[in-house]
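Objective 1b of the project was to move from sequence-level analysis to a structural picture of ligand recognition. The entry below was assembled by the postdoctoral researcher (A.K.) and checked by the PI before modelling. It contains the amino acid sequence of the target and the SMILES of the bound compound, flavin mononucleotide.
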Amino acid sequence: MNSIKDLITRGFKVYNQHGLKRFFFESFLFIWWSILPESKAKRLFSRSKILSEIYFFIFGGFYFEKKTILQGKAKNAENPSSRTRMIRLTHGLEKGLSARNRREIFFEDKIDELLYVLEEVILRQHKSNDSRCELDRQTKWVIDTVNMYFSVVSKTQQIESSHSNFNKLIRNVGYKPSSDKTPHLRKERPQYLGSFDNFRILTEQRTSTRWFTDEPVSKDDLDQAIDAALQSPSACNKQSYEFKIYNNKEDIVNICNLALGAHGFKHNIPCLIVLVGKQRAYSRVRDKHNVYIDASLASMTFQYALETIGLASCCINWHSNIKRDLKISKLLSLDGDETVIMLMAVGHPDPDDNVAYSEKRPLEQMRTYEELED
Ligand SMILES: Cc1cc2nc3c(=O)[nH]c(=O)nc-3n(C[C@H](O)[C@H](O)[C@H](O)COP(=O)(O)O)c2cc1C
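Corresponding predicted holo structure:
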């Protein structure tokens, strides 16, 4: 009896809060799950490609993701950015150059394409800066790497001709190639001088912090932390994400209104980062998860970097659903292939406010040492 009353009350509540459409949808779900229990139904739908397509066609959940992936592929196909191509090709070249048993002739079929996109990137930098400006650090990396390539690869007629094109290209760019940014021995890398113990303390110092002082977050501090975050690994070194930074209180509250997890502390956030993934970086659907992985790896480094300069942070979930995704795309003027990965509150921690302890799972539950069976 009680449960019928509860059901009717719930029906009224849904109708009053969300309208007739939602009422019918929830009633349909209720009847459906009563005939076939949810866990059994979901397992059934998961058993075949067609059934799972039907499930998500009815219940949604992936439309926005599919849209951004397709828009990204379209962008990549019609106008792949020269920089993205330059990075992908140089990434391949670096791997060839640092291989243990380097071949005598390699990259012969790709070097001209790399020179072509390198020229485009250089021209664009000169155009946007109105003069012979200093090239950015990544373009210098490409020039150094290509220069090393020509110094070690065996010469074929085609490689000779590419080499002479390269020399012509860099003659007037105001940068002399060096070995600074070329493959080098691991032991020559900068060495971390801190101890593991100190690093371990940093992992404990970082804790989700939701209460900040009124002190504004300086651009220099943020840039320093973001620059450290950019050293994180990313698929093919493509760094398919962007940190969008908001300092205006009203903007921050408006953005947080679209997320669900910051209602209690959105008015206290001095600086909000929106991490946006860019699907255009990858040309194949099989790389669809890379934007999330690239952005998440960078955000972890970012959070540690913030702690070392006296700032604190808290990730804020982005609950992806079609309505919210469309709203935030409009609010932030995102491109068609851009997707919000997460939000992050950043500020000077208020030492006199509490932070949660959030003990972690025991190590034994989180890792297994495995061996494949014969
Ligand atoms: C993807 C992600 C989403 C999160 N979303 C929220 C959120 O919406 N609101 C919030 O207060 N904290 C959020 N957090 C912070 C977690 O609650 C927090 O990381 C977790 O409780 C562990 O605590 P710790 O970060 O202090 O170790 C999120 C963290 C992650 C990684």
